[in-house]
Amino acid sequence: MNNNRILITGAAGFIGSALILRLLENEKTIIGVDNLNNYYDVRLKKSRLKLITEKSKKLKANWIFHEFHIEDKKSLDFITEKYSPSIVIHLAAQAGVRYSLDNPKSYADSNLIGFFNILEFCKENKVKNFVFASSSSVYGLNKKIPFVEDDNVDHPISFYAATKKSNELMAHSYSHLYDIPTTGLRFFTVYGPFGRPDMAPMIFANAILNSKPINIFNYGNLHRDFTYIDDIVNGLFGCCYKPAIKSENFSSNYQNKSYSNAPFQIFNIGNSNPIKIDYFISMLELNFNKKAIINLMPLQPGDVKFTYADISKIQKWIGYKPKVSFEKGIREFSKWYLDFYE
Ligand SMILES: NC(=O)c1ccc[n+]([C@@H]2O[C@H](COP(=O)([O-])OP(=O)(O)OC[C@H]3O[C@@H](n4cnc5c(N)ncnc54)[C@H](O)[C@@H]3O)[C@@H](O)[C@H]2O)c1
């Protein structure tokens, strides 16, 4: 067992909770922070925390949870004084593309002010590794596929994407100024058991089982690089124990945009296998043994048509290799959904 004193923000979230369940097998002390906001069903967040508590008891690990907003610097100061974490995995954020059109302020609060507080926290604690969540949405309407970390990402098409791109820039400046080993991970559409109710797998599963129509945008011409939660956790786990280093590939004419003279790295973390939305629905139909009612609609503002991750950079760095096929992933997700909700 290691004694790293890892802080995970967004501990009650989909990805954060899954990562903690894995880290408990490796670490003596894990500190979790989450404000348990009601962006989606809080009962789901609490049931994830319950699983963590049960597993920590079984493994006799030291699991500590604090409920607060990361915008509240005083609460973060308390964590510094009490635990002085050495590794920070920052997953707390206002997630979701579409909601950023309705409530942009919640994105400014959590993803900009909150993110700044986490950077200050990393500086004050002199952490030996900082890993944070970026998003595939930074690629906006880029047409060149697959998406590579060195592609231009200067044209976000949602405020959510703009906050994630801002996080990459903010983190780079702190990494450079204070020598903080920093890794930003661009997640590609994560799905699986205990997933987010605002995302397609949960929305579609609910609609199919309740015989309600599913709105399919861009008239069905949509592809997503769906990535199974266990693969994401494997990648996060690897980055947790491998702090970024200054890059040999850095050149001062910035040809390789994702490399830096600071200990800073950006990685795509996806499945590298885009799935068309109608195949995704047919897999849910198969697993639920029920037909979906489809309602074809135009593309929504802020939405992108295609996501597709080039994962060779993270593959080289930590040997990341997605293991769960889409078919198996949807089977696992469907089983969990029926068990949890029906
Ligand atoms: N799930 C995906 O497909 C996906 C894709 C790209 C990027 N991401 C990013 O990955 C991270 C984790 O995503 P997720 O799917 O687990 O989302 P999630 O919403 O399930 O988890 C985020 C957690 O952070 C908490 N939180 C939000 N704002 C907070 C604040 N101000 N203070 C304290 N806690 C706060 C929420 O209560 C929630 O439990 C996020 O940064 C998200 O933007 C996720």
TrEMBL record:
Signal peptide: none annotated. InterPro entries: NAD(P)-bd_dom (IPR016040), NAD(P)-bd_dom_sf (IPR036291). Pfam families: GDP_Man_Dehyd. It is an enzyme of class 4 (lyase). Residues 7-332 form the NAD(P)-binding domain. It comes from the Bacteria. One of its GO terms (molecular function) is dTDP-glucose 4,6-dehydratase activity. Keywords: Lyase, NAD. Its EC number is 4.2.1.46. This is Putative nucleotide sugar epimerase. It comes from Prochlorococcus marinus (strain AS9601).
